[in-house]
Amino acid sequence: xxxxxxxxxRATAAFDELAAALEQGNSKQxxxxxxxxxxxxxxxxxxxxxIALQKPxxxxxxxxxxxxxxxxxxxxxxxxxxxxxxxxxxxKQTDDAAQESTVDxxxxxxxxxxxxxxxxxxxxxxxxxVSQTDGKPLPEFATISGDPGEKLQxxxxxxxxxxxxxxxxxxxxxxxxxxxxxxxxxxxxxxxxETFSVLAHELAHELLHRGExxxxxxxTIRETEAEAVAFVVCHASGVDSxxxxxxxxxxxxxxxxxLQQSLEQIQKxxxxxxxxxxxxxxxxxxxxQEIVSVEMAAAI
Length: 300
Description:
Layout: H1 4-23, H2 28-37, H3 45-54, E1 61-62, H4 64-69, E2 72-74, E3 81-91, E4 98-102, E5 118-129, E6 133-135, E7 145-146, H5 151-161, E8 165-168, E9 177-179, E10 183-186, H6 192-208, H7 219-235, E11 239-240, H8 242-251, H9 256-261, H10 263-279, E12 291-292, H11 294-299
Parallel strand pairs: 8-10, 8-12
Antiparallel strand pairs: 1-5, 2-6, 3-4, 3-5, 7-11, 9-10
Region (Disordered): 94-116
Domain IrrE N-terminal-like: 181-231
Domain N-terminal: 15-119
């Protein structure tokens, strides 16, 4: 079993590796992801509600033509998601006659917030979720690889040991996991490596950002710290998340300088988790009421 000093050395080495990755900038995968995501329209609050009511599991929606531009095509027989598209008119430059047009909330057809058009009504328009399309895959974040083995169960036991409940279930906002102050929820469909990383990330939030210190931090600081802790824990547990973690931090505008500012907090929590992982027996059985599977949650 590693000593406290050895664990500290591993944490320091992992921290330095993450700092170096951040200094290199965005990965090609993150650059491609951001370029693609920028082509998705930001819908109004009202239309977000309409989309959620009709297709709660929607993640990325766009109009028929936008999907074609992205190299994807709406599957035969798919029903569109109805939204309200503002109808507007504007003056022709050649005369005073009003030219009527539709400002559809699909990115390929305009933006309802245009200052050059005046809204005079709404009409129905239809968009489609990515799950309703086939074709060229959308760029994704770098994957997490490796096998945490028995350490996944150990990490669940560590979470339980802090008095935090854990459930594997669907999450409405599309996140892989969520920290809710005394409760962690994680998607049940993740690989073991992804699950391990997400658990470490959300546990870091629970330990770092659920007290008075939360008021002193920004979203960028919190996500940088949580993902840095997750990377250190993964690095010492045979899970490779280097590119994934650096891209995640950069997505929230974090950088090497911010990482260095949080060094003390990150090392303190990551070494604590690693020490507990070493002490927690691999055959610990978590009671069913403390870790709820998606099937059990549906039955409750």
